[in-house]
Amino acid sequence: MRLRHIEVFHAIMQVGTISGAAQVLHISQPAVTKVLQHAELQLGMPLFERVRGKLYPKPEAHRLFAETEKLHRDLQGIRRLAASLKGRAVETVRLVSTPTIAISVLPQAMSEWRKEFPDTRCELATHHTSEIVNTLRLGEADMALSLQDPRHPGIIAEPIAQGVMTVIAPAGTWRGDEAGLPLTAPGLTGELIGHADNDPLGEMIVASCEAQGIQPNFRTTVQTYQIARSLVEAGAGVAVVDPFTAASADPAKVQKRQWAPAIPIQLFLLTNSHAPLSHGARQLAASIASIARACLTQGQQ
Questions:
Q1: CA within 20 to 30 Å of 145's CA: 3, 45, 220, 286, which one?
Q2: What tens digit of pLDDT does each residue of 257-277 get?
Q3: Which residues pair with 265 in a beta bridge?
């Protein structure tokens, strides 16, 4: 099947009618009919049952749909990339970040950068790291921020700031000298707030606890570090979070202690290895790195 055949075939599979496929593809109904007939002629078999204006896929069509799905997604990605490149006549910096950094670091970094680049467009988005890799590879973003190195051959991961995992607890949880000391797994008591099972930082904390002979019992688990921080600020429990989330916590509501043994956490600037950054993008990255390091220094005070 040709690429045009696949496009029409997938549109019909999704909407079930010639007219609907024509609307999706922005072409005429006769054009859809002609392409479908040509595809069926090439394959030597009908793909749909025609009943009262609707098309019902035959078993062969379902099998073909499953086999061509990846090719169809790749074709859509290529078109998005082409449109993205075409639309960059005016300099635009496209940044995607994990939610943690978007909330804790980006606002001040953007404010500082905007003073020097008042006219440059900037598009901000948030994704998890697995989605960020695809976004960079498809050319839908110029750079990204993550607490993980995706270790992908097409992605450059540059560490720009480093801290350590930190325990946060409601104000008044620790008293006296212990408040300033690192906290080990045996000291992780009370109502514990954990992270989702597939969270890399959460997995490191559990592994650290188990290495110290402790099996933590998280009766509350969350999807994001910001939710964990909000729960701690509300007095709902104790959590171990990344240093940026800890630094952004309200000091009037939260106490902080470094986790021991220390678990280093790096903030990575991710870029596509085949797409060098523009001057504006590189300056934004420098501003982010500066604010991130300042955030960590202030958070340790």
A1: 220
A2: 999 999 999 999 999 998 889
A3: 163
Report the alpha-carbon angle 89-94-97, nearest 5. Answer: 175
Position of tokens 């097409």? Answer: 154
Q: What is the pLDDT of residues 188-227, one digit of tens each?
A: 999 999 998 888 899 999 999 999 999 999 999 998 899 9
User: Mean pLDDT of all residues in the chain?
Assistant: 89
Quote the tokens at residue 58.
Answer: 């035959």
Q: Are strands 48-51 and 155-164 parallel, antiparallel or unpaired?
A: unpaired
Compute how many other C-beta atoms are within 10 angstroms of the C-beta atom of residue 3: 11
Q: What is the pTM of this model?
A: 0.68
Q: Are 238 and 173 in contact (CB under 8 A)?
A: yes
Residue pair 281/143 in contact (Cβ under 8 Å)? The answer is: yes
> CB–CB of 58/46 below 8 Å?
yes
- Cα dihedral sign, 70-76-78-84: negative
Query: What's phi and psi for 159, nearest 5 deg?
Result: -70, 130
